[in-house]
């Protein structure tokens, strides 16, 4: 019987916080999105949190002719969806999924003129992992048994997090901590780094502590800091420079007794060969979800073995676990592997991929027995309660409309604003305007149902609908809406909300009375709504691209420029809601009978807009 071939390739974007292994996307208060020295620390507007400059999670599903499905997750978001749909899919369809070597080679070579590193190789990595998962599912065999079998009986883990003493308590053999301050923080920042690491050493004189510098240091700064910390007995200094930087030879020459590690953000065997050729790297740390996938990682590992250099994967959960148990040069104390301390407080361990999978294997007392990895493929079962956004629909949401240029894929003419005077979790406002809305009744029904849904399904649905949906007909200007948004955000900040959320408060702020039900009826989405504003008030952990994708996935309509509002506003309706028909100036300008909405004199519109904006601005004062 012939082996099944690939019949379908699908891409997804995972929009939720903490799902899919995107360390840039976590809920407010999580330690990993706090101040950590990183490549963007030198820029003040991006220094506070990595969420201000990250990208989204990507999911990849490959189906075979026998109905078997392989799934993998990684980084890349919508741009990666485009690469797969428009370029890489052609190499996959109709092919035997066991041909991982040639498929990897074809994708790398076909994208060489615009790829070789970064997003392109990260996209290939997720495709490759999905292929290995699919083959394992078809053969009913775990991945590690297909690439060499077991080389040990269990995996031992160290834990990355802000509290190494907690890692020790949880049974991990070591703890890796993020460096908080970088060169931009000067001598005072270096002193703070030393004091913080000295405090971590209190976890025990012999407990291994590693420091993750996240590509943020210079050669001179790294030498000075590492020299200062020699009494602290740091086990290794990780990724002090970016992979393309020349300087690891200088680090090794200055402090040969220390271990220097890197590779998390390097790609393919060619990039790793350059690192190995420096003869300055003690441990390579490729990320299986970024470096080219499992197929390329096996090549990198074979290359490293010729230099007698150990390979210790960065993160990636079960994908890297299957690799580690099958390779003899992956451990340096039994099997050293990273598990990210995903709990917001850094005091416990949660799955690397959040709730994306139902059965992600977790360490107990810092170790996992190999028998836990014996399920087919990578042993991961997708959680049906997790909302996945279909990549194909993101790229071409309306079947009657052809796919535009790549640069147009995410543009829905969304206005994103930052308000530094509000708390971080309320500092970002994203607004988009849609016309020809075709699913208003469905949206209204979902909003009502979501309010009573329980469990994970309820949380996911409320997050999917976490917008203010504002009927555009009674809105006179963008300033009108923005004034209501600021009033609602202010109420949320000082604890004076009249409604349950900042988004429902926007509707209340727009209304001329204090009646909440009337506010929703007048300004919320109704079955007859044809034009709709979508508003999201959130923190910087929600990148503008992710918000725009979620809007487009939720609202079936045409995103239009805000100037279009002039053709939408129902001026008689505005006059009715705000009781401005009796204003002498408005009455004079509109005399002569009932005016059609689009035929109101411009002077009258200007006066009405001033009245309604003032009314909204003064509502909290008068309420």
UniProtKB/TrEMBL annotation:
Mandelate racemase/muconate lactonizing enzyme C-terminal domain spans which residues? 164-258
Tell me which domain of life the UniProt entry assigns to the organism this sequence originates from.
Eukaryota
An example of a Gene Ontology BP annotation on this entry? carbohydrate catabolic process
Matches recorded under SMART domains:
MR_MLE
Kindly give the Pfam families that the UniProt entry links to this protein. Answer: CGI-121, MR_MLE_C, MR_MLE_N
Query: Keywords, A to Z?
Result: Magnesium, Metal-binding, Nucleus
| Cofactors that this protein relies on | Mg(2+)
What InterPro entries does the record point to? CGI121/TPRKB, CGI121/TPRKB_sf, Enolase-like_C_sf, Enolase-like_N, Enolase_C-like, Mandelate_racemase_C, Mandelate_racemase_N_dom, RHMD-like
Which GO molecular function terms does the record list? Answer: hydro-lyase activity; magnesium ion binding
By sequence similarity, the record places it as follows: Belongs to the CGI121/TPRKB family.
| Function, as annotated | Component of the EKC/KEOPS complex that is required for the formation of a threonylcarbamoyl group on adenosine at position 37 (t(6)A37) in tRNAs that read codons beginning with adenine. The complex is probably involved in the transfer of the threonylcarbamoyl moiety of threonylcarbamoyl-AMP (TC-AMP) to the N6 group of A37. CGI121 acts as an allosteric effector that regulates the t(6)A activity of the complex. The EKC/KEOPS complex also promotes both telomere uncapping and telomere elongation. The complex is required for efficient recruitment of transcriptional coactivators.
Question: Under what name is this protein listed?
Answer: EKC/KEOPS complex subunit CGI121
């Amino acid at each position: 019987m012939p082996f099944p071939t690939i019949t379908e390739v699908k891409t997804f974007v995972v929009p939720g916080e903490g799902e899919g292994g995107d360390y840039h996307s976590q809920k407010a208060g999580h330690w990993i999105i706090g101040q950590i020295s990183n490549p963007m620390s030198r820029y003040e507007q991006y220094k506070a949190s990595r969420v201000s400059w990250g990208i989204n999670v990507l999911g990849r599903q490959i189906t075979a002719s026998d109905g078997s499905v392989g799934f993998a997750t990684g980084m890349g978001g919508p741009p990666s969806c485009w690469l797969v749909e428009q370029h890489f899919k052609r190499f996959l369809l109709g092919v035997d999924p066991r041909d991982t070597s040639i498929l990897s080679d074809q994708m790398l070579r076909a994208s060489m003129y615009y790829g070789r590193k970064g997003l392109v190789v990260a996209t290939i990595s997720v495709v490759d992992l999905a292929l290995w998962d699919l083959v394992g599912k078809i053969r009913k065999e775990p991945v590690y048994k297909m690439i060499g079998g077991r080389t040990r009986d269990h995996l031992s883990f160290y834990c990355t997090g802000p509290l190494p003493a907690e890692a020790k308590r949880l049974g991990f053999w070591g703890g890796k901590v993020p460096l908080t301050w970088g060169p931009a923080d000067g001598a005072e920042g270096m002193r703070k780094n030393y004091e913080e690491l000295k405090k971590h050493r209190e976890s025990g004189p012999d407990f291994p502590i590693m420091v993750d510098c996240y590509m943020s240091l210079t050669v001179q700064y790294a030498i000075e800091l590492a020299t200062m910390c020699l009494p602290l007995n740091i086990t290794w200094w990780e990724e002090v420079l970016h992979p393309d930087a020349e300087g690891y030879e200088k680090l090794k020459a200055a402090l040969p007794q220390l271990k220097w590690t890197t590779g998390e953000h390097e790609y393919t065997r060619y990039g790793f060969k350059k690192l190995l050729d420096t003869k300055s790297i003690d441990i390579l740390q490729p990320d299986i979800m970024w470096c080219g996938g499992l197929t390329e990682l096996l090549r990198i590992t074979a290359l490293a073995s010729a230099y007698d250099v150990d390979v210790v994967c960065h993160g990636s959960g079960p994908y890297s676990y299957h690799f580690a148990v099958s390779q003899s040069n992956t451990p340096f104390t039994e099997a050293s592997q990273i598990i990210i301390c995903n709990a917001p407080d850094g005091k416990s361990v949660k799955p690397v991929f959040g709730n994306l999978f139902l059965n992600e294997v977790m360490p107990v007392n810092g170790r996992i027995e190999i028998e836990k990895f014996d399920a087919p493929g990578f042993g991961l079962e997708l959680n049906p309660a997790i909302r996945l956004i279909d990549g194909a629909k993101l790229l071409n949401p309306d079947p009657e409309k052809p796919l535009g240029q790549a640069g147009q894929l995410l543009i829905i003419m969304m206005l994103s604003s930052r308000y530094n005077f509000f708390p971080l979790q309320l500092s970002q406002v994203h607004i988009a305007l849609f016309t020809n809305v075709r699913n208003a009744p469905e949206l209204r029904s979902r909003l009502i149902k979501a309010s009573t849904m329980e469990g994970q399904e309820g949380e996911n649905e409320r997050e999917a609908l976490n917008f203010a949906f504002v009927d555009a007909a009674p809105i006179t200007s963008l300033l009108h809406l923005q004034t209501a948004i600021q009033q609602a955000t202010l109420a949320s900040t000082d604890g004076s909300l009249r409604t349950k959320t900042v988004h429902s408060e926007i509707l209340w702020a727009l209304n001329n009375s204090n009646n909440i039900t009337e506010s929703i009826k007048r300004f919320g989405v109704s079955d007859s709504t044809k034009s709709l504003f979508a508003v999201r008030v959130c923190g910087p952990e929600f990148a503008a691209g992710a918000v725009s994708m979620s809007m487009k996935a939720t609202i079936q309509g045409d995103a239009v420029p805000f100037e279009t509002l002039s053709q939408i506003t129902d001026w008689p309706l505005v006059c009715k809601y705000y009781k401005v028909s009796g204003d002498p100036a408005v009455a004079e300008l509109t005399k002569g009978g009932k005016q059609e909405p689009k035929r109101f004199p411009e002077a009258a519109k200007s006066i009405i807009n001033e009245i309604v904006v003032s009314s909204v601005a003064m509502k909290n004062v008068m309420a």
